[in-house]
Design brief:
alpha+beta, Jelly Rolls, seven-stranded mixed sheet, about 20% helix, ubiquitin protein ligase activity, signal, zinc-finger, membrane, transmembrane helix
Length: about 450
């Protein structure tokens, strides 16, 4: 059993409180104190105080909520961190705390209130939760009240410092001009394109920016107000995205100096990772902390910075417009070419009927020889006069005749039909095909040389 700590029961705020004195003799025999009550008053005189509690079956579906309220030291002067581990103790590796759960927000801000929420269903029956309270680099005595509660709904730290915030699913929705995980820190809202003028600052102040619509980058500017200036004003700038782990900025991002020569400083901050929070029904905030080494009259302003993609977007739009214009111009050229070809074809076709319409019904020997092919030399016999002669012509139906015999036949009959098979010889069709061939091969203009195909002249010569 534990031999070297004082244990007694007292009344504290109407609850039964177990008073534990943690000194060098605490758990000397190697055994740890099991926490079975809801509330303990602990006086810690050594750097490490470790306790444990065992998970029962009814605890599995509940949130285990650990809270520590310090009697002393005071807020802002506490060098302490609360950790918890499931079936394992907290350890240090190269000055890094290794634990399943830890209140880093309270640790970095030296708060007099620490809390840890262990989610429901994150442990099993008879699991052991080890709670370790570490005093860091401090030899003072710490006194605090440790509360252990098992809740059905997920709690918020310090109940969001009510009435300064509202707990929504374990996250505090802080009121206007309040920030941090428990809404315990005052902050000033910076609005887009609305400068904050005549702000007197010495020491540290917190600010926040909450976008109304999704932005990629902003420009944060700060400097002396108007003609006011001082030499060598050291300014520390810290900023972070609201992540509900660290609460507010704890790491200095940069330091700079304001002077008569440098009265204003601007920084581009990429806020594309600030997403919309469905629980809080707003965008997560950009949190800022400004610290100066001497009193100064300052001005702050946040404006939208066009993203790097804007230039690329403009180039893309320009390329799209140029391609569209090129396609339209090419379509116009092709359309004009097609229209020109159609007009040319129409002119050619319109000339041919005019030429053919001027022909007379009688044929000449020359026209007959022009329209019909010469028969191949061989044993050819004219079907009309029955004489053989090599100088013969051939009808489209492949019958051979003397040109004069066939001409007399055609002129003595009403239709131009073959004497043998009576197949009609369509001279207009033959002449049309020959005319097309001549026109397209010579690429002539609409004023066709009609003397080459004028049937009137041919007949006049007969």
């Amino acid at each position: 059993m534990f031999k070297f700590f004082v244990l007694f029961i007292c009344s504290y705020s109407g609850n039964i409180v177990i008073d534990i004195d943690v000194d060098v003799n605490f758990s000397e025999d190697g055994n740890l104190l099991e926490l079975v009550r809801e509330e303990y008053l602990i006086t810690q005189k050594i750097s490490n105080a470790t306790f444990y509690l065992t998970v029962s079956e009814e605890d599995i579906a509940k949130y285990i909520f650990l809270e520590i309220n310090f009697q002393y030291p005071k807020n802002g002067d506490v060098n302490f961190i609360t950790t918890a581990g499931n079936n394992k103790l907290t350890s240090l590796q190269n000055s890094t705390i290794m634990a399943d759960y830890a209140d880093y927000n309270a640790y970095y801000l030296h708060k007099n209130y620490h809390s840890i929420v262990i989610p429901a269903h994150h442990f099993k029956l008879n699991d052991t939760l080890y709670i370790t309270n570490l005093i860091r680099n401090d030899r003072r005595i710490y006194q605090y009240i440790l509360k252990i509660r098992k809740l059905v709904e997920q709690p918020c730290p310090k109940n969001c410092s009510s009435p300064f915030g509202t707990c929504i699913n374990g996250i505090c929705q802080c009121n206007f001009n309040k920030i941090d995980l428990d809404c315990s820190i005052d902050a000033i809202a910076l609005n887009l394109d609305q400068p904050l003028d005549n702000f007197t600052l010495q020491g540290s102040s917190y600010f926040y920016f909450q976008q109304e619509t999704k932005l990629e980058k902003i420009q944060f500017s700060f400097g002396f107000q108007g003609n006011f200036y001082q030499d060598n004003v050291k300014v520390s700038l810290s900023y972070m995205f609201e992540n509900f782990i660290y609460g507010v900025p704890i790491q200095i991002n940069e330091t700079c100096t304001l002077s008569k020569e440098a009265m204003k400083i601007s920084r581009i901050i990429d806020i594309s990772n600030l997403t919309y929070n469905a629980n809080l029904q707003r965008f997560n905030r950009l949190l800022l902390k400004i610290t100066t080494n001497q009193e100064s009259l300052l001005q702050f302003e946040i404006s939208e910075k066009p993203s790097d993609n804007s230039y690329n977007d403009a180039i893309q739009i320009l390329i799209t417009i140029l391609i569209s214009l090129a396609c339209a111009f090419l379509t116009l050229i092709v359309g004009c070419a097609i229209q020109k070809c159609r007009a040319k074809r129409h002119r050619i076709i319109s000339v041919i009927p005019q030429i053919l319409s001027e022909s007379q019904p009688y044929l000449t020997l020359e026209i007959l020889q022009q329209c019909l092919q010469q028969a191949q030399k061989g044993n050819n016999q004219c079907s009309i006069c029955q004489d053989q002669n090599n100088n013969m012509i051939q009808t489209p139906c492949f019958h051979t005749y003397h040109a004069q015999c066939l001409l007399n036949w055609f002129n003595n009959n009403q239709s131009y039909s073959c004497p043998n098979c009576r197949q009609v010889v369509d001279f207009e069709k033959i002449k049309l095909e020959q005319t097309k061939s001549i026109i397209f091969s010579r690429n002539i203009n609409p004023s066709i040389n009609q003397s080459s195909i004028n049937l009137n002249q041919e007949q006049a010569q007969n």
